[in-house]
Amino acid sequence: MEKVVFVGAGSMAEAMIQGWIEQNVVDATQIYITNRSNYERLDELSLKYGVNILQKKEELFHADIIVLAVKPKDGKVAMESISSFIAQNTPVLSVMAGISINAISNLLGNRPIARVMPNTSATIGMSASGVAFNEDVNEDLKKQYLQMLDAIGIVIEVEEEKLHAVTALSGSGPAYLYYLLEAWEKVGTEFGLSKETVRKLMVQTIAGSAAMLQQIKEEPDVLRKKVTSPGGTTEAGIQALESHHFNEAIYQCIKSAEARSRELAKGE
Ligand SMILES: NC(=O)C1=CN([C@@H]2O[C@H](COP(=O)(O)OP(=O)(O)OC[C@H]3O[C@@H](n4cnc5c(N)ncnc54)[C@H](O)[C@@H]3O)[C@@H](O)[C@H]2O)C=CC1
Ligand SMILES: O=C(O)[C@@H]1CCC=N1
């Protein structure tokens, strides 16, 4: 991979850039970034990571891979602005939520396309990504794509249609966990613990529970029951979650996010 061009240099682009550089997948000198208007942002990333700023669109012609990392609402304009500057077979990797492979090939022409749904933990090589490929991605390129995605976490190939669900679950997932932590910190401090103490305890609780699920091959409900002593504190807590319709809230959360991904796909 000689030249990787990022179209859109926001938070997801930064997460991938940082992940790829740190995991030695792509050298910073091989990365080029471009944005619509925020040139300060380009300077910031260039200074921070040593990546190049794309000077003119003609340079896109020599790209080995183009990463589309603009917001879905900006996708059409961004693709239209580059379509006449990219070579016929240059592969595209898109992280835009909801924008279908079909929509991408309609604007950029038939070419190898990978649609990826990573999450921001790519920054530290811990993304949980879903990916779907079109038929133009041959086995070699698929391997290369998977290697790149593997370097920023784990990656699972799914049917394109299922990317809406992946987006709602693991794409947005970090935000749900941060939101949960915010709620824990709020209540913990109300009980007189410092925010720092609650954070330390609960971040370790999240990390420990995730590691248990990864290392001890037991179902979550089995692990949950091991925590829940009859008549004890956990049971009281879970009963409160149930009476406040926890399952319904989670169901609606994922359903709404999945539906939003579908709306984005229709350009709404
Ligand atoms: N933030 C996240 O956790 C995740 C985001 N995504 C997807 O990644 C994409 C980017 O999201 P973020 O990085 O969060 O957004 P962001 O708003 O931080 O970055 C988007 C960047 O695109 C640039 N841009 C807009 N129009 C452009 C154009 N026409 N040409 C070139 N650059 C243009 C903007 O200046 C901005 O720097 C979105 O499509 C989102 O669905 C996917 C997975 C997770
Ligand atoms: O909120 C969003 O639309 C993007 C997609 C998944 C995470 N962030």
Automatic annotation (TrEMBL):
Its EC number is 1.5.1.2. NADP(+) binds at A69, V70, K71, P72. Residues 3-98 form the Pyrroline-5-carboxylate reductase catalytic N-terminal domain. SUPFAM superfamilies: 6-phosphogluconate dehydrogenase C-terminal domain-like (SSF48179), NAD(P)-binding Rossmann-fold domains (SSF51735). GO terms for molecular function: pyrroline-5-carboxylate reductase activity. Pathway: Amino-acid biosynthesis; L-proline biosynthesis; L-proline from L-glutamate 5-semialdehyde: step 1/1. Its main location: cytoplasm. InterPro entries: 6-PGluconate_DH-like_C_sf, NAD(P)-bd_dom_sf, P5C_Rdtase_cat_N, P5CR-like_CS, P5CR_dimer, Pyrroline-COOH_reductase. Keywords: Amino-acid biosynthesis, Cytoplasm, NADP, Oxidoreductase, Proline biosynthesis. Belongs to the pyrroline-5-carboxylate reductase family. This is Pyrroline-5-carboxylate reductase.
